[in-house]
Known about the structure:
Elements: H1 2-17, H2 21-37, E1 41-48, E2 55-66, E3 70-72, H3 74-84, H4 87-102, E4 110-114, H5 117-121, H6 125-136, E5 143-148, H7 156-168, E6 172-178, H8 187-190, E7 195-198, H9 210-225, E8 229-233, H10 238-246, E9 252-254, H11 264-273
Parallel strand pairs: 2-4, 4-5, 5-6, 6-7, 7-8, 8-9
Antiparallel strand pairs: 1-2, 2-3
Helix pairs in contact: 2-3, 4-6
This protein binds ligand C2E and magnesium ion (MG) (3 copies).
Organism: Rhizobium meliloti (strain 1021)
Protein name: Diguanylate cyclase/phosphodiesterase
Domain EAL: 24-275
Amino acid sequence: EAKARNNGGCTAFEAEMEGRYLDRQKLKSDLREAIGRGDLSLAYQPMFTPDGSRVVSCEALARWTHPERGPVPPDIFIQLAEEMGLVTDITRFVVRHACRDCLTWPAEVAVSVNLSVLDLHGDEIVAIVAEALAESGLNPARLHLEVTESCLMDEPVKVQAVLRELRERGMAIAIDDFGTGYSSLSYLDALPVSIIKVDRSFVRDIHVNSRRFKLLLGTVNLARALELKAVVEGVETAEQLQLINEHNCADLIQGFVFAAPMPASAVAVLCGHGMPEPVAERTA
Ligand code: C2E
Ligand code: MG
Ligand code: MG
Ligand code: MG
C-alpha cells in the first residue's frame, strides 16, 4: 500500500511532466530560485540493524515543495538541477544541513548524503564536504557519501581520484542502487568503497521468486567476502523482513517496514526511544 502511494505519486507526476516542455522550463526557473534562496528541506530515512533495534545511520533525502504544485519528487528536481548545472549547489545545501543535523543525534549514528555524478566530475566537491565538516565539527567518519554505479563509469580516473581523496579524509563511500548499473564488478576491488546498498528491485518479489532471493543472498555474501557492509534497501513488508532475517542476508535494512523518511528531530526522538515508531511521511 505504501509502495502504491509512493510510486503512484511519482509516476503521475512524471507522466504529467512528459511532453510539457513549457512547464518544465517554468519548473526549472522556480527551482533555480528555490536553490538560490535555500528553500529546500531534508528528510532522513534511518538504516537499522536487521532486528530493527538500533539506528546505525540515516540517509539525507532532499525535498522541494513547489508553492503551487506541492512536493516535487527528488528524482525529478535533481535531474532538472543537473541539466541546469546547479546540482552541486543542492549537494552543498544537503551536506551542510546533514552535518549539523547529525550532531543532534547520538554519536553512534552516521549520516549519508547522495552525490550526483556531476559532483564527482567537478572540482568543488572535496572542498564543499571539507567545509561542511569544518564548520559543523562533525567527525568525518560519521559522514557517508552515496554514489551510484553508473557514476563510476564515465571519467573513471577523475572519479577514482575524488573518491580516494574523500576516503582519505575519513568519510565512508557507499555504492547506491547496487546491481542496477551496467558496470563490471571489478571496481569493488579497485575503489575505496566500504558499503553497498542493494537496490530495492532485488527485494521486491523475494517471497514469491526464489531465484530473485538467491540473487539477493549472493550479492550480500559477495559484499561480505570483500569486507563491505551490505545495506538492503526497500524492505516494505513483514514477510520480506522475516525471509531476510531467517537467512541472515542483510547487515543493515532501510525501508518502509521500519521507517519512512522523517524530519531530523524525529530521528533524534527515534534514537532516544530505541524503537521505530510510525511516521507520517511516505516520500514526496
Ligand atoms: P535513493 O538514494 O536510492 O534513495 C532511496 C529512495 O527510496 C528514497 O526516495 C526513499 O524514500 C525510497 N524508499 C525508501 N524505502 C523504501 C521502501 O521501502 N519502498 C519504496 N518503494 N521506496 C523506498 P526519494 O526520497 O524519493 O529519493 C529518490 C532518489 O532521489 C534517491 O534515491 C536519490 O537518487 C535521489 N535523491 C534524493 N535526495 C538527493 C540528494 O540530496 N542529492 C542527490 N544527488 N540525489 C538525491
Ligand atoms: Mg541514496
Ligand atoms: Mg538507494
Ligand atoms: Mg534510488
